[in-house]
């Protein structure tokens, strides 16, 4: 009887282990399958950047390349030359400003519960050396602007919804976003999807930061 119970317990442990292992395996396979794996080098006269904190990707666009549809409703100053856009789970963003603040509850909520999302806008005066430069065409830039703009949730008047006094410092803000964070839609899949929809080199699908970074380094 005890042996049968032990076998049942071990079987269920194996099942639970297979879920993350299966997710990791499929994620890696899809990460290394390219999407839009070409470049139109004759018309790539615009610039954007990718950045990562080691886990989380952001799209950085020079303010001069920000179109009106995206710029409207953002709190900006003229001297802030570069705008960084990230997307993620609202609770995780607001309650995990650094990785040392990470708790099991915040991680579980982000991955498994249906929760609201935010756009994280960070403003920079100067370019950082760690940013990865990406050349793209005017048409691709327009599509990327539209993709980011459509990720903002809007009020009944069509205005972007800012969360007052919620930034980590004086050069960033949070805005209400569209969609819910999950295993299948992470901060990095949001960036990758933006690149795919814009016609830029991207992964077929990826929850990782390195998949997209490796295609431009």
SSE topology:
Layout (H helix, E strand, L loop, with lengths): L1 H30 L2 E2 L10 E7 L4 E6 L5 H4 L10 E8 H6 L8 H9 L4 E8 L7 E5 L1 H12 L12 E2 L8 E5 L10 H11 L4 E2 L6 H5 L3
Antiparallel strand pairs: 1-9, 2-3, 2-6, 3-4, 4-5, 5-8, 7-8
Report a brief summary of the structure.
With 217 residues, the chain is α+β, with helices and mostly antiparallel strands.
Structural features:
217 residues; 2 domains; globular; seven-stranded antiparallel sheet; alpha+beta
Q: How many domain modules? A: 2
Please report the number of helical segments.
7
The largest β sheet comes out as: 7 strands, antiparallel
> What is the H/E string?
HEEEHEHHEEHEEHEH
Global Rg: 20 Å
How far do the termini sit from each other?
Answer: 58 Å
Q: Residue share in helices? A: 25-40%
Structural class: alpha+beta
Average pLDDT: 85
Percent of sequence in beta strands:
15-25%
Count of β-strands: 9
Strand order of the largest sheet: 6-2-3-4-5-8-7
Low-confidence stretches: 98-102
Shape: globular
Description of the structure:
The structure is a single chain. The radius of gyration is 20 Å and the shape is globular. It folds into 2 domains: 1-31; 35-214, no CATH class. A 7-stranded antiparallel β-sheet has the order 6-2-3-4-5-8-7. The N and C termini lie far apart (58 Å). By secondary structure, the protein is of the alpha+beta class. It has helices at residues 2-31, 68-71, 90-95, 104-112, 138-149, 187-197, 210-214, and strands at residues 34-35, 46-52, 57-62, 82-89, 117-124, 132-136, 162-163, 172-176, 202-203.
